Structure formats: C-alpha cells, structure tokens
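Key idea: predict the complex, not the pieces.
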Amino acid sequence: MTPFLLVLYLHINIICSKIIIRGICKMLLYKDIIKEGDSRLREKCDPVSFPLTNDDIKVIEDLNEYLINGYDDKIVDEYDLRPGVGIAAPQIGVLKQIFLILSTDEKGNLHHYAFLNPKIISHSEEKAFIPSGEGCLSVEREVEGLIHRSKRITASVFLYDFNTKKVTKEQIKLKDYIAIVFQHEFDHLNGVLFVDRIDKTNPYFIPENSKPIVFDANNLEGDYEEKGN
Ligand SMILES: [Zn+2]
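Result:
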C-alpha cells in the first residue's frame, strides 16, 4: 500500500468509526426532545415492570447522559443542547413512569436520581414557588407566571442505581427546590405541563400559604432559569 493510500485508508476508517459510534451509541440531542403540541406529552404513562428490560435501562441511561451532558459547556456548545435539571421519559416519546433529576438544591447539595413508578403519598399544605418561574425542555416559549407546589412531599418510588443498575423500593421525603422539580417531572407522567398550573387571570398571584424558594448559594436561581426540566 502506498503512503497516500494508507493515509486515505486511515482517514476513511476514522470517519467511519465516528459515524458508527454516533450511529450505534446515538446520544440524545435537544431535537430528540418532543415539544409542546405533541400529543404524547398529554398521555398518562404506564408503570414499568420489573425486572427492567434492556430497553427501559437504555431509556434511563440515555436520559441520564442528556442531563450530565448539560453540565458540560463544551458538549452543550458542540451539540447545541439545552441543559435541564430533570427530564421525564415521555419527553422523548416513551410513555413510561420514569424520570430523572440531576441538580443542586437551594443550599448547594447535589441530587441525582432516576425514579420509576413514583407515587406521592403525602404532601404539605404549605406551598413553595421558584421566584423566576419554571422552565421545561418541552416548552420553547417564554412563559409568564408562578407555579405554587407543595413545599414538602413524601413519595413511594423505585430508585434506579446508576452503578449497579439495580432497583430498590424506597420512601423518600423531599422539600423545597428538589420537591418542586420532583412535582414538575411527576406531572409529565400524567400528561400535565407546568404552563397548565399557572393562574391565567393572575399569573403572579401568591397565595398566603406559599413562600419563595430562597437560593443561598451563588447564582443558583439564575442557573435554574437557563435550565429547563
Ligand atoms: Zn418539563
């Protein structure tokens, strides 16, 4: 093989392997997330069965990769991703009770979960809201208004372990910001979008029992505004 042919061969090989890698291990992109107006976002999702199928695991891992990639500015720029703090399976057209959260809370603590078949078993009467409003990877327009959600929730969930790929049944208690993200994602499993929960006649109305989430770490609130879920 002449040096020219060798270089050409290696070059083609590199291009092919890149295409194969991207073809087989296709990572989720922002364009893969279905947007408001798609009827699949309005469906009720089915519970997953155990043991999880390989397809279920792939959905969880793909959603997880999307959230993780959202924290990498280089990947965000290269693939034109819109970062998110949470994402639910129906947002990629999979109508199953699966959602993930990857975010810090108002105090800067990291939360990283994959929830399956979640049920909210109790919630506080006290409400909380994000002063800058909520965002959603499936809603591309600017939305005015506040969403008041339970300040504390107790949920029964199946929790997926990213390392062992095993699932355990847990009862969890969440509060404030992460409880709000949980309820936003939980709504997706029932075909509800955050825009549905805004008081149309008085979008900035604050009920007496609702308090703003106070972000005490750096610019978390600004960070949230950029990220949907
Ligand atoms: Zn959303």
